[in-house]
Design goal:
Elements (H helix, E strand, L loop, with lengths): L1 H22 L3 E5 L4 E2 L2 E13 L2 E14 L2 E10 L2 H4 L2 E3 L3 E7 L18 E12 L5 E3 L6 E7 L10 E8 L2 E5 L5 E3 L3 E4 L2
Antiparallel strand pairs: 1-2, 1-14, 3-4, 3-12, 3-13, 4-5, 5-7, 6-8, 7-8, 8-9, 8-10, 10-11, 11-12, 11-13
Length: 194
């Protein structure tokens, strides 16, 4: 009986610890003009490059991000700067954004600008795009999806809000913010609960 009680106590303790961990999961907040809120919409805009077998298409990307209870999703993505950019199509929306602690290098990768701490890791999952002529390719594939890992900073100045940089592979494609470039947020955004 004593072993059974100890086992039940261990299970209850593990459940309590797991529940506490889940309750303290990281989430996003944005500045709504008068305070921090976990619901709302913002846009990330800036220079990106999508490449396939070494051929790159430099564009400006615009990601509309919707926060619902602190959970963030990319609900729209568009590209501009050339006819090839204008023809890039985002599929499989919404894409989920997941924050995490970041302890890596700063700048996060070669060609990235140095970011202003505090830094947070942000993974965008469910990503699929189609790049038209001259590439004519789905990234990562016509039916699959992939993830992009990036870093978000806490920049806040009179001329810009947070910066987000990313670099990663989507199948045979690679996507990243352009050298010394970053996507800038339309309003302040932060990660809480880490």
């Amino acid at each position: 009986m004593s072993k059974l009680k100890n086992s039940l106590l261990a299970l209850a303790t593990a459940a309590a610890v797991f529940g506490a961990s889940s309750a303290s999961a990281a989430s996003f907040e944005l500045w709504n003009g008068s305070g921090w809120a976990n619901n709302g919409t913002l846009t990330f805009f800036g220079p990106t490059t999508a490449s396939y077998v070494g051929v790159g298409v430099p564009c400006n990307a615009s990601f509309t991000v919707t926060l619902t209870g602190g959970n963030a999703t990319v609900t729209a993505a568009s590209f501009s700067g050339s006819s090839a950019c204008n023809g890039i199509t985002a599929y499989n929306l919404p894409w989920t954004m997941t924050p995490s602690a970041y302890t890596g290098a700063n700048p996060p990768f070669t060609g990235s600008p140095t970011l202003t701490p505090t830094l947070w890791g942000v993974a965008i999952s469910g990503v699929r795009i189609y790049i038209p002529s001259p590439l004519n390719v789905y990234c990562p594939s016509q039916t699959g999806s992939g993830s992009i890992n990036g870093v978000l900073d806490s920049t806040s100045t009179a001329t810009k809000n947070n910066q987000f940089v990313f670099k990663g592979a989507l199948g045979a494609c690679s996507v990243q913010t352009q050298n010394n470039g970053a996507l800038s947020a339309s309003t302040l955004v932060r990660v809480v609960g880490l």
